[in-house]
Structures are given as C-alpha cells and as structure tokens.
Write a structure and sequence with these properties.
A hairpin with a 2-residue loop joins strand 3 and strand 4. The protein has 99 residues and is mainly beta. A five-stranded mixed beta sheet has the order 2-1-5-4-3, with no helix packed on it. The protein has one helix and five strands.
C-alpha cells in the first residue's frame, strides 16, 4: 500500500500547470477475465464513462458483463494534463440464454 507521503511527492514532482482548457486524457482497456487478452483499447481526449461491476455493455456489437474495474489517476509529467487509465475486466457470461 502506498503512503500518503509517496503520493504527495509524486504529485509535487510531476505538477505542471496544464494549458488553459486542456482536456484530460483517458485510456480505457477491456480485457478477458484472466487479463491475458486485450479486447478493446480506447484512448481519447476527455473522460469516458466508467462502467461498474455488473454492468452489461457492448464491445464491438457483442454483449459482455463487467466483472472488475480499476482506475489510475495521474498527471502527464510534461504537460500537466490530467491522465486517467481504466482497466475493465469483462466476461461473456451475460446470464441471458440465446433463443
């Protein structure tokens, strides 16, 4: 577990005032339950909606269920722009039988 001092030191070392109106950057990667296969990787300016465990979502027209979500918040060292990285584990077990 990280200490508050270590988090504060990292923030102080990387703090650069971002340009006025600079949008945050958000990368979101969707992986299989074992984390071994990337299914979709999105990297966009702005912030994507973060799914919650139990949410049923679509990835490339296929239904999946979110099983775990982890988000890391940080800052780009050069620009000061806020950066988010979200890892989303999904399963194809939607609980709905094909009919």
């Amino acid at each position: 577990m990280a200490s508050y001092d270590a988090i504060g030191a990292a923030e102080e070392a990387t703090w650069t005032k971002p340009e006025h109106g600079a949008a945050p950057s958000h990368a979101m990667t969707f992986v299989t339950p074992d984390g071994g296969t990337e299914l979709v990787c999105l990297d966009v300016p702005g912030v994507l909606p973060i799914p919650r465990p139990g949410d049923q979502i679509g990835l490339h027209d296929h239904d999946v269920v979110v099983s775990e979500v982890w988000t890391h918040y940080g800052r780009d060292e050069e620009t000061g722009r806020v950066r988010l990285f979200t890892l989303v584990r999904v399963t194809t077990d939607t609980g709905v039988e094909a009919g």
